[in-house]
Amino acid sequence: MWRYVSRACSPTFMRRNLNSVVAVVDFCSAVSVSALISASGVVKGMEQKIYRPPPQVRGMTCLDREAFTQTITVPALRVPTGVLNKVVKSLKKSTIQRPGLPRVIHDKEECSDFRLVLLDPHKVTSAASFSEDEAEALRSFDVPEELQNYELQLTYHNLKTEEVLEAVLPQGQDVTSAFSRVGHIAHMNLREHQLPYKSLIGQVIIDKNPGITCVVNKTNIIDSTYRNFKMEMLAGEENMVAKVKENGVSYEFDFSRVYWNPRLSTEHQRVVELVKRGDAVFDVFAGVGPFAIPAARLGANVVANDLNPESHRWLQHNCKLNKVENKVRTFNLDGRAFIQGPLKQELPALLKGKMRVHIVMNLPALALEFLDAFRGLLHESPSDGTLPTVYCYCFSKDENPETDVVKRASHSLGFPLEGRSSVHFVRNVAPNKDMLCVRFSLPTEVVFSGDHGQTDSSSEPAPKRQKCEEAADSASYIHSSVSEG
């Protein structure tokens, strides 16, 4: 009878039968309600204690893998080999689940007819810990619910990334194991208190993530006009040429010299899916081609531009890599010069041919300020054709970000876009800072007007604004652990 009482008081039973807890407590007067309700918390604490690395690794700055080795005691079940696979399958929720640790080992008695099934010590502490289904399965296989202790060696390789770092870094301080993956490169955003441990952190990331061979940390300052940030090597090989695949398209680039955000793949795909075969696409800030190349693969005629010579070089390389070099013409110009140069020259013929035209402006820190380049763009070439659709990316820290970005776009364009535009939320890049996309058709009142004036949208010089905004952006997108996808 006490066996069933013990089972009823077990954490497994309670989690599934909370409504029966009161009845159980009436029978087991020695057990308090508070102790029963907190049983799951005790189990969680037990897990942390059992798998906690030795205390002497605290403060380690140079990785010593051997220092993490320790011996722990885990419960084991002696099982005949004839029913071994069936038992393991029935107990799959209770067997030990640690990187590199076996679930089944030879019996110490070296009997070929039996094996030991190792159980998770934070889930199974006694025979009463088995669920009803598990206990029934063991009875059907004639396996006694008799546990024995087994001493198991736990090494560095059996620990998870966060467990290693939590054991090493000072207690009470934030521990991060998050990174942004770009091919073989792990890109981290370490905080000040983590910097003394940066080399160790980098090596742990490599050890625990197959395929990662290089770990870098961004520095705080972006000091160029090309959106590439300075970074330092933390561990691994110093090879910055990454190979990535996004939405079925292959890209190669020097990650240290161009801008690439792996969290924008969903947004790239969203916009590209709006493009149809035969459409024309002008990509003003093309980078290495995440909008331009997929659009070309769909049959669009693409003209792509980027001011960064390295981005332009890798854009051309990726066009060849994806066999669309004949569908994409590339330029290495300032965005304003591109709009008032190649785009202006080609737009009249496209409008006359009734071709749909898309203009992508993905430079969220500054793109809104380039909208004034469309003022009077075709004042010498009037047309009744359908004017291009613009996709302009921007940041907002306003309480009403959609209203804010439309207002700013209207100011730069010199024409009210309220009621004539739509705003798509892309992602949150930092607390109280969103990335959005304003979509609108270029107004005839803007494109064919005689106004060529530029908008002085800020008293700050443009390079300074760019550095401040993009430094914040690059920091925030790397720190985020769940990617925009």
UniProtKB/TrEMBL annotation:
Residues 450-485 are annotated as: Disordered. The chain crosses the membrane at residues 21-43. It catalyses: guanosine(37) in tRNA + S-adenosyl-L-methionine = N(1)-methylguanosine(37) in tRNA + S-adenosyl-L-homocysteine + H(+). Pfam families: TRM5-TYW2_MTfase (PF02475), TYW2_N_2 (PF25133). SUPFAM superfamilies: S-adenosyl-L-methionine-dependent methyltransferases. Gene3D superfamilies: Met-10+ protein-like domains, Vaccinia Virus protein VP39. S-adenosyl-L-methionine binds at H268, D306, L307, D334, G335, N362. One of its GO terms (cellular component) is mitochondrial matrix. It is an enzyme of class 2 (transferase). It comes from the Eukaryota. Residues 179-444 form the SAM-dependent methyltransferase TRM5/TYW2-type domain. It is found in: Mitochondrion matrix; Nucleus; Cytoplasm. PROSITE patterns: SAM_MT_TRM5_TYW2. GO terms for molecular function: tRNA (guanine(37)-N1)-methyltransferase activity. The keyword Chloroplast does not apply. Signal peptide: none annotated. Keywords: Cytoplasm, Membrane, Methyltransferase, Mitochondrion, Nucleus, S-adenosyl-L-methionine, Transferase, Transmembrane, Transmembrane helix, tRNA processing. GO terms for biological process: mitochondrial tRNA methylation; tRNA N1-guanine methylation. Its EC number is 2.1.1.228. Belongs to the class I-like SAM-binding methyltransferase superfamily. TRM5/TYW2 family. Belongs to the TRM5 / TYW2 family. Monomer. PANTHER family: TRNA (GUANINE(37)-N1)-METHYLTRANSFERASE, TRNA METHYLTRANSFERASE. Specifically methylates the N1 position of guanosine-37 in various cytoplasmic and mitochondrial tRNAs. Methylation is not dependent on the nature of the nucleoside 5' of the target nucleoside. This is the first step in the biosynthesis of wybutosine (yW), a modified base adjacent to the anticodon of tRNAs and required for accurate decoding. Involved in mitochondrial tRNA methylation. Specifically methylates the N1 position of guanosine-37 in various tRNAs. Methylation is not dependent on the nature of the nucleoside 5' of the target nucleoside. This is the first step in the biosynthesis of wybutosine (yW), a modified base adjacent to the anticodon of tRNAs and required for accurate decoding. This is tRNA (guanine(37)-N1)-methyltransferase. It comes from Takifugu rubripes.
